[in-house]
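Researcher: I'm preparing a figure for a lab meeting and need a structural model of a single chain. I don't have an experimental structure, so a prediction will have to do for now. The sequence is pasted below. Please return the structure as tokens so I can convert it later.
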Amino acid sequence: MAFCRYCGKPIPDAAPTCSHCGGVQAVQSQSARAGKSKLNFTPVSTLFCVLASLVLYLSEESVDQDMINFLIGIAAIGIVCGIICVKIEEKKDRAANIVFILASILLLITALARGA
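Model: Understood. Here is the structure written out token by token.
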């Protein structure tokens, strides 16, 4: 049982407004917060790695070493983050994280090949 922020009378935990005074309860209850889904950046990160690999692979122009080093760093960070996410995420998200790791490895291999 929670209490109204305005009149102090008892109200149900998930009540958006007070049934006594009509005051809007701005603070969400724990059960309301648990129902929200979290934002997942794995698809966007995977797409970035794949597109960067394709552009780097198909580019006929020379690529400067700073760009190669940047992409190698991004790929390394992606691999580490992907491994961490596979360890801590739910089972339904593991496949997406494994694809992200593979895309990061693809970017790393492509950047290393272009840098040689």
